[in-house]
Design goal:
This protein has helices at 16-32, 69-80, and strands at residues 2-11, 36-52, 55-67, 85-93. By secondary structure, it is an alpha+beta fold. The chain has a four-stranded antiparallel β-sheet with strand order 2-3-1-4, with helices on one face. It contains two helices and four strands. The radius of gyration is 15 Å and the shape is globular. It has one domain (2-95): Alpha-Beta Plaits (2-Layer Sandwich). The chain starts with a strand and ends in a 21-residue tail after the last strand.
């Protein structure tokens, strides 16, 4: 079994209900092909470095997937024709970092006033 980190960027005007549908749609594809989603993270709306299809922002969804390469092929085939998505990226990794939340919002209490 291979380990993959798969990130998709949805358009900025996609509703929260549509985001949930996207998560479910791609999760079902992974499960149908006998893969395992170890972790699913919704990173939220973030600025893009440059305009993509006239969008300045995008909704990021990140999957940590355990499975075969055929799962990634099927995911990317479906993502190419999805009008709600701007980009997708898959990276094969040796192990998952399940402890760190890179895009977690910091509370103001965490900052020390000097």
């Amino acid at each position: 079994m291979n380990l993959y980190e798969h990130t998709i960027i949805a358009r900025q005007d996609v509703s929260p209900a549509q985001l949930k549908q996207l998560e479910e749609k791609y999760s079902k594809i992974v499960e149908k092909l006998e893969g395992d989603i170890v972790k699913l993270e919704n990173w939220g709306l973030m600025n893009l470095s440059y305009l993509i299809k006239k969008n300045k922002k995008g909704n990021y969804i990140h999957f940590k997937i355990k499975g075969d390469g055929s799962i990634i092929s099927e995911l990317e085939k479906n993502e190419k024709i999805d009008k709600n998505l701007l980009r997708y990226l898959t990276v094969k990794v040796n192990k998952f970092d399940l402890k760190t939340d890179y895009f977690k919002k910091n509370n103001e209490k965490d900052f020390v006033n000097k």
